[in-house]
Amino acid sequence: MDEVIISTKITDDLKKIAPFIDYASFTRIINKLTDYAEIITEGKLASLINFNYRLNASQANMVIDLLVDIQALSKIYTIAQKGKRDLDVEYISNIFSDVNNPGSISSYLSLRNVLENRLSHQIQQYNMNMGKSNTTMSIPLNELHGHVKTFKDLQSSNISISHKAGHGYIAASLHDAYLTILNRFDWWDDKTYLKFFFNEDNSPKKSLNLITRETRLTLFEIDDNVKKVLEYFQSISLFKAKPKVPEHDFDLDEAGSDAKSSKHDSNTINYSDKLLITPFGVQYGQKIDETIDSIFNGDNIKIAVTMNSEEIRRISTGLYQVYKALPGSLTMPQNLIMTKDLVYYLLGQDYGIKKFTEEFIYTDRKVPFARFFPEIKDDIEEFLTRLFIIFFEEVFSSIFRIIRSLDMKQYACAFIIKRIYLLKGEDMPLFGYFLIKAIARHGKIKVT
Fold first, then answer.
1. Is the pTM for the entire model greater than 0.70?
2. What is the pLDDT of residues 101-144, one digit of tens each?
3. CA 102 → CA 35, 98, 180, 358, distances in Å?
4. Can you tell me the distance from the alpha carbon of 436 to that of 438, in angstroms, rounded to the nearest whole number?
5. Is residue 274 a contact partner of residue 243, using CB atoms and an 8 Å limit?
6. What are the φ and ψ backbone dihedral angles of 208, each rounded to 5 degrees?
7. Which residues on adjacent β-strands are paired with residue 89?
8. Higher pLDDT, 236 or 103
9. CB within 8 A of 29, min separation 6: which ones?
């Protein structure tokens, strides 16, 4: 890969992790970190990254470093546990489902509140260690610059780090994380920010993070970085999946090549996927491609996305109640119509399970969503998977009425999955991968 993705440093990071991270796994990592409402410990983050236990510690750390470099994660520091001489590192996710209006997301508000509470405590600890009489006064940024330099110098020289430098470094990391979450160009005028920090710097460097000295990104820019990385992994996966087209047609010899050249040229593009020239592909390929096109490019999605949120909430909660009480009745005609409407609606959206749950399933406002979602996440995932399986069985019913053999059904499911990947490519909606997961489960195909 010669193209620079974001920067040469990010490009180098991507080249290192591409052999063991693919588009599907990186997408899952991003989905896990989207709207994450709590501070993430190092151990917890490692488990989110290494969700299928396929990575070693070094590989997981390389993925974490990439996320930190694109500022999808902010590092913050705390006093280490007893017996350790260094600081402990924790992380904050800067990935949100609505970067244009993050204040409408409960996880964003919760995370900002957590940071402000920690800053209030850290200001007191900092001023006490500096011997200041007023423990609530804001910290001058020029002091933090000095503490960061001292901390890094002592860290590199393997000398015990003073409490002053340690607490200054902690405050600096909280400053960087808070300004990213604050998501303002004029943060120096924010009343809450002024309670914690006093900024005397009017130079262009004031937009740099105190710890890394990298330019601070907005949540929109971070979201754009995440999309660019996802597009890179998607292009890699499509390149691997794309079969090579032979230079010469297998049924042409030198004598007859001129006579058949026009026929060869007109058909090569249709047979770029060799599955289409198998007996199964010849018989069912066109019908499958037409069905896939009708799912993703037909009028059903356009109609569904115009439905108002209250109607979608009514459908979602109704189907979820049926699923909890009597899941077998989800295939009844009335429920089947609602299932198709909901699936088409979701295929037209650009968010995942968490946003869906918050918008259409979360009803008990007495329980904070940050506590509600982890308890119900697996159940919602199973509920949606069942809906997508029912949807798949319905829209492809004309194919599976003909195919009776279990082996052929499994082959058909694998065929359909590959055709979806090749036909949709980078335009795949997030819930498109839910459809692929449902097809794989229907065909008893093991996916990672």
1. no
2. 888 888 899 999 999 999 999 999 888 988 888 888 888 888 88
3. 9, 5, 12, 14
4. 5
5. yes
6. -90, 145
7. 77
8. 103
9. 48, 49, 51, 63
